[in-house]
Target: Probable membrane transporter protein
Amino acid sequence: MLEDFKLDYFYGMDTMLLLLILGTFLGFFIQTVIGFAGALVALPILLLAMPLPDAISYISIFYFISTPIFVYREWKNIDKDILKKLALSSVIGVIIGIVILSYGQPMILKKALGIFIILFVLNSLRDQKETKRNSKMEYTFGFLGGFFSGVFSTGGPLYVMVVKNASPDVKTFRATMFGILGLVTIVRLPALAIGGILTIHQLYNSLFVLPFFIMALVLGKKAYLKMDEQLLKKIILGLLFVSGVMLLV
Model:
């Protein structure tokens, strides 16, 4: 009886680690290529093996590790003005989002976000003209991006809607996305620890995933250097649409 329990336990752990490795590798490969969507790719895979709060913790750990690397590499390309405008409202949004993750049942918000993203992509395809930069929109979307980053670690698409219109090219867009998502992560990880969601056990398991995470960063950088700007723009809209559908289902 005890031996059967041990076998089931270790089988469950092996499955969890395998899915954690797969989700982290795919998520951060995409994140390195285009500047966002790491959590949107990783989260559905991680949720096959663990509850939502645990999945958010693992994703946040690897975002926290990658943030100094991304920001150091891309600092000269980051739009500091848009980053400043998004910063304060994002921090407030993250804190409120983590409170809801800790004490609420926020799944209906996830579906609402999915619908919103799909409508945004369809509108972008219909009208190719860039919308005018609006400071009120930046503050509002900064708060919403931080909020959904705190609840689901999926605030990236909301930041895309602002940063995409404010960026003159894909290089600036990608670098600025690294900057704002890095800022959100710096706030989110300590907040998860204070809220009791982040645990020592999760940090221990992350050590096994670390080599695959590093591999994702290296391969993602190589893939980015080989892609042209128009292809990256199409990938950004395509991933936004897929992420919206995934949030719905």
